[in-house]
Records
---
Amino acid sequence: MDATLSAAKSSLPRAFVLGDGLNALGVVRSLAAGGVPVLAVANRADALVFRSRHARAHAVLPLEGGACVEGLLALAAQQSRPPALFLTEEKTVRTVSEHREVLQAACRIALPEHGRLMALMHKQGFQALAEASGAPIPRLVHLESEVDLPLLERLTFPCVLKPARKDYAYGARFKKAYVVDSPVRVAELYREIAPVLADIVVQEWIPGEDSDIYFCLQYIGADGRLAGSFAGRKLRSWPPRIGGTASCLPAWDEAAELERLTHDFFRAVGFVGMGSMEYKRDPRDGRFYMIEPTVARTDFQEEVATVNGVNLPHIAYCHEAGLPLPELRPGRPTIWRDAVVDRWSRQEQGGAGGLEAGLAVCDALWRWSDPRPWWGSARARVEGKLRTLLRLAVGS
């Protein structure tokens, strides 16, 4: 029996997980939990994800551009069956979508039409699609030059200012987002940011805490069928109110509404593949408002679904490989936590109103069964602090 099981596993198509960091690590661990053979692809030899014992093979490739495509095709040609692609970064999504004809001939990945995908990845494009479909979304103004600044009079402040699309030059110099209290403040910030990135949006701010932010992770097959869904709720973000997820947990009570809102929108715009939607519940009226989607890739906190019994990467893999879908095994609610940034957030703003009391916690990095990613990250932090101290000592 053991030999038969081993042979069956060896005949499974491999999954290629592209990216580094906690997102890719969570996908690798989720797929491994389903017995899927995984090849991890990152752009440097010391990538965090390569340290996981669950990545059975490694490949160093650029994560965007022609070299990425050529490398993936070469790796796919070495496989006995077309591999499943799992993307974790926006730059990779753009590259794969632009070269979808050759990549989908060699690999398994569900993607919406390219123009629609690009619109969903741009905040103004998403805004237009949401408004056209009647989805609940705060009002927004798109800035492309200073000529557009008078349009801010349409909005009620405070608002949030953020890049209209992922831009690494912007990310290297500016905050992920800024809460702004007036058009004057927007104009000041915009004049500083525009030389780096002029493509900016300003959206009406919904009040509330980090724990008022919800999300719904979904996988919709190339056939349009909703294969899996999971609703969650943030506990803390970093930076608070406007940053990425520091800790989160299931939102079982709100799952039906969030699943309906998300699937209705994705169906209306023709989206298929791996995606999610972030919401904020407005304490003034109790309604959920769409904030932004994540499309054609896994979400940063994708693994929270896996640790709560809904293994979406495995569901996606099985769906596209034509295998039976795995069982859903929801159990005791478990918090997924990026420990370092969660500690920073807690120190700055306190707890989350008792939501986490008595719940189990799954650390995003540390696992007894897979400790090397944690050790590698800890070593990198220590070395970084030592380099900083050395620079200070030399400069003093």
---
Amino acid sequence: MSESHARPEALHIAVAGGTGQVGTHVTAVARARGHRVVSLSRGEGVDLTDGSGLGERLAGVDAVIDCLSIQTGSTRVATDFFTTTSRVLLEAGREAGVSHHLTLSIVGIDQIGFGYYRGKVAQEAVVKESDRPHTILRATQFHEFAEQMVERMGFGPVVVIPRMLVETVAAAEVAEALVDLAEERPRTDTVELAGPSSGWMPDLVRRLLRHRGRRTLVVPVPMPGAGRAAASGALTPAGVPWRRGRQEYDDWLRAR
């Protein structure tokens, strides 16, 4: 939070995906600021695909922060998941009197036709077309994305990494931005958050592996088809973003 950002009265915030990579940070940031937080998950009796158990969890909630995610490359699966859960959250929010619906999305998703990104584009459309007061935060790839790439693309002593230009940001700073936005009036608009500097994903992976003391060969490969735009910066803001993260990638590595 910036020094000029006045601390508001305590809010009651519901976090969809509260046990996920960003959601856990959102919960921690919001509670540290004195807000009351409720997590929306199956483990707490809430099914966001049909709304069961959701109504009572949203009683008295001021803002819903949607950080839900799903591991899929299928356009159909991603679109069905994101549009269904968003409609369920928006309708339940209407009935409960929630005054602000926030959705976490990704910078550049309308430039690259991957299945997951198409699902996020469809989700954004559902939120925009609703009559609910909302804010969409598009963030660039996370610093943590390099770790995920190693896990997914590693083959013994070799890891194959797409050659893509990125401006990664720490997931914790994405969470701070979401809570900052929840403390404001709904923008009924989309804002973008980017990292403090740009770099190539294969280089970030090399630095991660070097930090871990691993002698793994990193092989950069061009992204085929719809992913070609990523090499020229489609996953970075086209203009000046609403905000940039402060923590550089190497500082993030050392902090871990």
